[in-house]
Amino acid sequence: MTSINNKNNGDPKNRGEKNRIDWNSIEEKWRDRWEEQRIFQADPDFARKKYFITVAYPYPNSPQHIGHGRTYTLADVHARYMRMKGYNVLFPMGFHYTGTPILAMSRRVAARDIDLLETFEKIYHVPKDVYTSFVDPLKIARYFHNEIRLGMKELGFSIDWRREFSTVDIIYSKFISWQFRTLRKKGLIVQGSHPVGWCPNDQNPVSQHDTIGDVEPAFSEYTLIKFRISDGYIIPTATLRPETVYGATNLWVNPNIEYVKIYLRDKDERWIVSKEAAIKLEFLDHKVTIESYVLGKEIVGTLAKNPVTQVWLPLYPASFVQADSGTGFVMSVPAHAPYDYQALEDLKNNDSIQKEFGLKFVEVKPITVIESDGYSGIDVIPSKQIINKLNIQDQTDPEIENATNELYSHEFYKGKMLQNTGKYSGMPVSEAKDKVKSEILMSGDADTMFELINKPVNCRCGTQCVVKLLNDQWFLNYGNTKWKYLAHECVNNMEIVPEEIRQEFNYVIDWLKERACARKTGLGTKLPWDQDWIIESLSDSTIYMIYYILAKYVNDKSIIDPDNLKDSVFDYIFLGRGNLVQVASECNISTALLEQIREEFSYFYPVDSRHSGRDLVPNHLSFFIFSHVAIFDRKNWPKQIVVNGSVLMEGKKMSKSLGNIIPLRDAIKEHTADAIRLAMLISAELLQDAVFSFDTVKGIRSKLQDIYDMGKESSTNSSQSQIKSAKIIEELEDRWLLSRLQRSIADTTVSMDKLRVREAAHNILYSLDHDLHWFEKRAKAKNRESSSVQYTLFTFLNTRIRMLAPFAPFLSEEVWDKIDNSSTSIILASWPTADEDKIDIIAEESEQLIMNLIFDLQKIVKVTRIDPKKIIFYVAARWKLKVYNKILSSVFLESKSNFGDIMKQLIKDPETTKAKNDPNLVRKMIEDILSDPIETRKRRLLLENFDERLPIEDARKLLSLESGTEHAEILVYIEDDTDQSKHDPKSKGKFARPFKPAIYLIDQ
Length: 1004
Ligand SMILES: [Zn+2]
Hints:
Elements: H1 23-37, E1 50-55, H2 66-84, E2 88-90, H3 101-110, H4 114-123, H5 128-131, H6 137-154, H7 170-185, E3 189-199, E4 204-205, E5 219-229, E6 234-239, E7 250-253, E8 258-264, E9 269-274, H8 275-283, E10 288-295, H9 296-299, E11 303-305, E12 312-317, E13 329-332, H10 338-348, H11 351-356, E14 370-371, H12 382-389, H13 399-414, E15 416-417, H14 429-442, E16 446-452, E17 466-477, H15 481-493, E18 495-497, H16 502-511, E19 514-516, E20 518-519, E21 534-535, H17 547-555, H18 567-575, H19 580-587, H20 591-604, E22 609-613, H21 617-631, E23 640-644, E24 647-649, H22 664-671, H23 673-682, E25 690-692, H24 694-717, H25 720-725, H26 732-753, H27 757-781, H28 786-804, H29 809-819, H30 841-864, E26 870-875, H31 878-892, H32 899-908, H33 919-931, H34 934-942, H35 949-954, H36 956-962, E27 969-974, E28 998-1002
Parallel strand pairs: 1-2, 1-22, 7-12, 18-23, 22-23, 24-25, 26-27
Antiparallel strand pairs: 3-4, 3-17, 5-6, 5-11, 5-16, 7-13, 8-9, 8-10, 11-12, 14-15, 17-19, 20-21, 26-28
Helix pairs in contact: 1-29, 3-6, 12-13, 15-16, 15-21, 16-21, 18-20, 22-23, 23-24, 24-28, 24-29, 26-27, 26-28, 26-30, 27-28, 28-29, 30-36, 31-33, 31-34
């Protein structure tokens, strides 16, 4: 069937050339019309089921580009689909001004930062007089807010704009204050000292939204083991494996970096650390005085005492030790750390280094202190073993990182401490790790240190972030176990799309701890009980979906006076608490209005689907769950989260430096909204990265043009009443196309329900197109009158356009307007449902047979190179079909495909016993069946008395046209036909198998 589409056999592909669509004016027309009709405004309608869909609101510090468009477009497609399924869909939008990035941007404008100004001018096309006003952060936010809103309208998003707000609106701030007081009353906001990611320049905590590349600073707690040298100085080494201190053989120092001798006033201790480490220690609240500087090479060879084993260990030189990692010193445990083992080996083999540092090199023996499956026995050195296994050559081999991780986790989960670890002997490593750590911490021989594990993390201001121990900071206590428990319950009872993300949520919920929720600077709401702090952006964006309900009334300025709003209003509307009359009078709102808002909230809440990018799983989406379970009853917990991957531009990540950031509004103007929408969704399923390419856009546009043209023809050719009253044509290809259409409806509906939109869009745009072309080709070859195909084509288009509507709203509306005379928008038309009665397996089998025969015939003509006068098809004898059916049911129903078993069964049955004379035929049939797709097998099980002659005769003309044998006469016989006229001089007939007629070409 593949060969059919390759050629352009006069099918109507090129018809579009003559009437190019003026897309821009079509888009504008429908945008205006929809707005006039207020078609996206959703109010409670208690007779209908509601569907509340939201997307993470955008941060207006730039216009949206192609990369932003995917999540919003997906949500819009979802919203439009649910509307067609009959739901009263609410899809609102707000704007998130909160935080420091816009503020930082305004400072850069004030400082005339060339990079930024050029971005405004060249990439975002902001007029100069506008961006010079950007010294005011609010001007930035308002400008891009407006740009984004226009872009969303131009893309056709079905948003109820009456509910728009920004997070610096007065009433929004009142709402956030209420949220925070509510959380605090529940004991979920605490004050204390905790480590946070920190920008030393801004003097502010940083999280994902504040960093370049949107990385969340991640840190771990390391144990600093204090090795003492003879003059009393301490050499601290940072480790995640304190239990291996028993196996330490030496320390590593980098001879080429500068170290500092420091006095820690808070501990009254003297340490040697790298310069970088001294700075980190200050951020971790140590009081550091620098006494002097010393080069690494000056301390090579010094001895330091292991505080646990009391053994004196030498400091050896190593270039892998980094100044900004840990303290700039490393404890060497060669038996369990592949890096250490390899570095020692490298050092042993390097005479010149030994000479340079005057090391009289003593053979260092690794000390094994842990045994585990696969690494046990006397004299086993696990790191040596794994180095050999992975064939690692030296310490620069990148595989060594994998070796380290593998051994670390293997020993953590499966390892046991050996006898040389004293009282820990026999203890599982996972237990010993914490015990050893707390014991040496208690004895003062160790300290702790927080360190970024994904550095460098850079703040948007360009400064490298550190970990800071922050005092008097306000935290949301996501570490609270009861709270975690509820969050798990919520995740486990909701739908997560795709399902595989569910475990990621559960993991994040377990892992989250206290999280700083306020900042010293930025836009946003002040912490209600401590005006020095501003609530940060990932904390004021967790339950704002409820605010969309209120926003409709807030935006109608005459209704609500912000000065009158007290917490009791929010309590009443959102939690159903308090007395209606009392609250109404307290806030000077009529009881009727208050009741109406409460009812609207009860109608639309909970959120039925929350859409967001995958990068927001570990933060925003998890906080969204936490806040909901803390504040609301179970019935108002969110029902579904949908997560999607990102977008690559022509296969590359989008970034300003690559110059491949294309603002959405520019792209729409040039390539049309519908094509951009489809191109963002059609290249990938949810979690995959979508690859956006302009070739795809062009291909989609030409498909849409075809559909438009078909609509136009359909509307001009005849009136719909004519079509509706037209006689239903029972030609094979009509029955086939309508049957395929039902299957497509069923498949596409399943895909849409699961939000497999790539699959759905493919069905609608490509698979159906393929079917349509086949139909047209068949009808044309039969010289059918155009009036005779009208009914089928109209039904096809009417169905297809409704399935296309969520994806390509403008084009669909335009075509719908031409072909449907109900004068209702396609937005409110119903999603098609599959009609089982129209499934026609005989038609499907027939067309499949014709496609296969065209393919076979083309092959034969090509190989034999003859120009046949006659083409004879011999279809298989009746008894072969019985054999076939019997084999099919044993293969398919009993999943038996063993030749011997099948043959036995065939011989047993008198109707098929003839098969024993032709074992080869049976073998071939088994092969045929096994290579057929499941759908084909299923269909053939249901087929009875299928006569292959009919489709061949029906498609005579097409068969010869497609195989380039126009002058040939086509004849069809049954192989055991006793008809006198049957012509089978070469006895080809006996090769016929069911669904595989034998073909004979005669060239004279
Ligand atoms: Zn910064």
